[in-house]
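A reminder from the course coordinator: this example appears on the midterm review sheet, so study it carefully.

Given structure:
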């Protein structure tokens, strides 16, 4: 299943706290039961957004992988995840 995860930095979150949270996640993920349990992950930042805004597009068979990501980053980010399906432009009509 494909998920879009959207995060807005919480008020008062500094670039340093965001960077530290991201580094802690990388270290935690290596040791976690979720390590390697996603097929793809891509992270994007919205240029010039204030507060900082990011989103991830992820593919995982187990929604718990996405839940783990959301829970981990919730201290620094207001974060939500949505399951999505790909549809062509013509399918939307």
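Designed residues:
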């Amino acid at each position: 299943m494909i998920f879009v995860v959207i995060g807005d930095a919480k008020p008062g979150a500094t670039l340093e706290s965001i960077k530290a949270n991201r580094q802690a996640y990388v270290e935690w993920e290596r040791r976690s039961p979720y390590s390697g349990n996603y097929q793809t992950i891509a992270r994007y930042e919205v240029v010039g957004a204030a507060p900082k805004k990011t989103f991830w597009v992820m593919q995982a068979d187990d929604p718990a992988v996405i839940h783990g990501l959301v829970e981990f980053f919730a201290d620094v980010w207001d974060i939500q995840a949505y399951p999505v399906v790909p549809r062509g432009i013509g399918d939307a009509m």
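The mean pLDDT is 87. The longest strand covers residues 2-9.
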